[in-house]
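Hi Prof. W.,

I finally got the non-specific serine/threonine protein kinase prediction working! I wasn't sure whether to trim anything, so I left the full sequence exactly as given:
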Amino acid sequence: MREEQNDTVATELATKNDGASSGVVLFGKYELKRLLGVGAFAKVYHATSLDTSQSVAVKAVSKSKVLNGGFTANVEREISIMRRLRHSNIVDLFEVLATKTKIYFVMEFAGGGELFHEVARKGRLAENAARFYFRQLISAVKHCHSRGVFHRDLKLDNLLLDENGSLKVSDFGLSAVTGQIRPDGLLHTVCGTPTYVAPEILVKRGYDGAKVDLWSCGVVLFALTAGYLPFNDYNITVLYRKIYRGQFRFPRWMSTDLRFLLSRLLDTNPETRITVDDIYQDTWFNAGEDLYDPVLVKESKCTCGESRTGFKSLNAFDLISFSTGLDMSSLFEDPNGSDSVERVVSAAAPENVMERVEAAAEEGRVVVKREGNGGGAKLEGQDGNLIGLVVVYRLTEELVVVEMKRSEKGRECGAQFWKDKLRPLLHELAREREAPVPGDFCKI
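And this is what came out:
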């Protein structure tokens, strides 16, 4: 019922164009205020958390448009990328929620708007002010690259400002990870915004993701201090020719040190283009007043992985997928097929849970075969057919999630075992819960 209500909410909001507060509450947690922007298959709203009164941005993604457009992998990758990034100058992803028709990204709200508007308002920035933002941009880019993430669409439109005027890198929809690198050591997908794209992308022979990000950083820095883009033309062919040849002119007011840094950033040869480490040694980068304190990298939000006891730890993102890693495919699965998986939350110790499962299996004449270090087990019937899997996930220090997946072959037998033996046991475990679960889940 709540899913239907939330889908109705999204439909109603899509028709509102007056920017006024809607007063509609999403998932009983976020009051949606106004529409901030519209993309190809997503809308972004300003919202307020009812629990904390904190402003957030809610990105509503249409499942049908994603599936029909073949963008499922892009959305999954965007989620997996944002969950591995935790930096003061990168928009934080707080939560991902889903209904039958929508996926909602709940993100940090940057109340200062786009850096593009700041440049448009002032015409161009003084070098000290540009340095303030550029240092934050490079710090964020360095963090991305250290986590194996390449943004591939850095531009003024994707650089936001918070209420304190600090920069926030956003929109990782076109980002790539090291796993996408081909055996030649390069990425090959042609993407990006034409006026910011690196010349090596245009030749379609493969490119280094870190190098193209730094080229885009050069375009951003040029635009901040010049007030216009270094490469621009109404004719796309002429534009790409200028980029490929590196044809641009410095305005007369640029300092010599800034020109030198820009010439190294906008070097058409990626082999000789400046690196992040070299930028940190650059004269212009380190000049001026101390306008910017070094960014402190936030504690990583990615807490998945095996614990010392062998029981997997979960974070908020794994609650969505209950996957072994970055698989977010359950966000796009048919909700009508979810009856083959059941889960409960318990305060019982993980090892105690598995012992009770084994006891129930013995009574039901089901064979339990432990896997790994004890965090999961296969359930087999007397005929040797797989009935299902039981996995115990560590949710917090006090709580675990117990999951059972029934196999197709042993579905009938597994369902009977679940109904008569395991489900009553797990309900008993759920009643032992001694602490609240995020989202107040009792049965997931």
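The mean pLDDT is 78. Does that look reasonable to you?

Thanks,
D.
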